[in-house]
Amino acid sequence: MATVIQPRDERTQPSRIVPGYPQTPLRNPRQPLIQRAPTLSELTGPLDAARRLRLLGGDIAGHGEKQAIGQLIHLKVRVLDEDGAPVGGAMVEIWQANGAGRYIHPNDDDHAPVDVNFYGAARLVTDASGAFELRTVKPGAYPVPTNDGWWRPPHVHFSLFGRVWLSRLVTQMYFPGEPLNAQDRILNAVPDAAARDRLVARYVPPTGNPPDALVFEHQIVLRGRASTPGQP
Amino acid sequence: MKGASLVPTGEATLGPFFPPRYVDEGANDLTVFEGRKAKGEAIEIHGRVLQEDGTPLENLVVEIWQADAGGVFRHPADPRHAQADPDFLGWGRAATDANGNYRFKTVLPGAPEGRAAHINFMVMFSGLMRILKTTMFFDNVADPVLLAVPSSRRELLIAGKNRNIYEFNIRLRGENETPFFDD
After folding, report:
1. What residues in A contact B7, CB-CB < 8 Å?
2. Cβ atoms < 10 Å from Cβ of B3
């Protein structure tokens, strides 16, 4: 059950300092990062985090009179490793703004309205095929307080625990066809166009099932592949 | 799926709106797991996280991963996995307060095979486009990860000690910047 982690192609990952994102030059290291050969310590990691953290399920849109306001969506996500093998049992944390672009968070003092039926946080575990589903409303866009015209496009945040420490991932998912995608400073911090495209969910044309929600599919690839015993 | 080769998903910042409820009560206490006490010497780790201009950072998320008191990781890749303390998860999460301070309760890790005793750290925050990873050590002793750090900066990875409390401050950028690893 050993995992091999190889360096990533830098162009598929965001630059650490992002023009127009004023916190990035204050918080990212000035010194070069230090190369190390991973040892057992970095090639193991928490597999039982879900026994410590309370699971919240994947249905955050509410029902009946408590249904959140906004476009109801089903998000179908698969979590794979670099071999394409499913990562089952992985804990996933999800958070997002409500349909108007407002978070329930002390840091959010935007003017957009709070929706009393939407908190916007899901925590669940992938099934054996690496899949999970989220029933939610499509998040709204919102202005960033840089006050220079930067608006975040609709997006969903993910935090994932893979099989080992170096597979831990914090990422964001975007929606197809959104005009704000092309200008978003965080999405466009990834230099490689194909890597950016993979951060955008795929729209699935309605089939009537479910009757009340639009469907989007998405794939998340965690670092690492299974090592073959006896091979380097 | 032989031959498949997928590119790892791009990272992104945690942003300013990570739900406070995700820093679950007790997630920073590794000495107790499901009501049972972990084996070993209980210690605390305290630290402060600052950005370049010296401003302490609030609501920054710190996670740790470590071996148990016997130096064994709770993970099947560890050949000694069967001997891992069943009452020790090895993982914890804390958030910094308004003064930039975080704290963990844990047990003193044993030295894993080929390594000195250490604790892996991860820092996630608004403005960090990628997770920052570092490692805390208890002593400046031979260790392959510590030796990868230029000798002039190694001291920054050694925790200060006051009885059973270890101090590990994290400077994201600037003077006495914490060494971070490129994995």
Report:
1. 8-9, 12, 82, 195, 198, 221
2. 6
Domains and CATH numbers, chain B: 20-171 (2.60.130.10)
- Token reading at A8: 């990533």
The verdict on a CB contact (< 8 Å) between A170 and B12 is yes
Check B33 against A52: CB less than 8 A apart: yes
List helix spans (H) across A75-200. Answer: 193-197
pLDDT, one tens digit per residue, over B7-42 is: 999 999 999 999 999 999 999 999 999 999 999 999
Give this prediction's pTM. 0.97
**Domains in chain A, ordered, with CATH?**
48-222 (2.60.130.10)
Chain B residues touching residue A40 (CB < 8 angstroms):
73, 77-78, 112-115
- B132-182 pLDDT per residue, tens: 999 999 999 999 999 999 999 999 999 999 999 999 999 999 999 999 999
CB–CB contact B53 A85 (8 Å): no
For this complex, say whether ipTM is above 0.90.
yes
Tell me the residues of chain A between 90 and 149 that have a Cβ less than 8 Å away from chain B. 93, 95, 97, 103-108, 119-121, 123
- Dist CA A91 CA A114 (whole Å): 28
Matching residue, tokens 């599919």: A217
Residue A191 near residue A16, CB atoms below 8 Å: no
Asked if A227 has any chain B CB less than 8 Å from its own CB, the reply is no
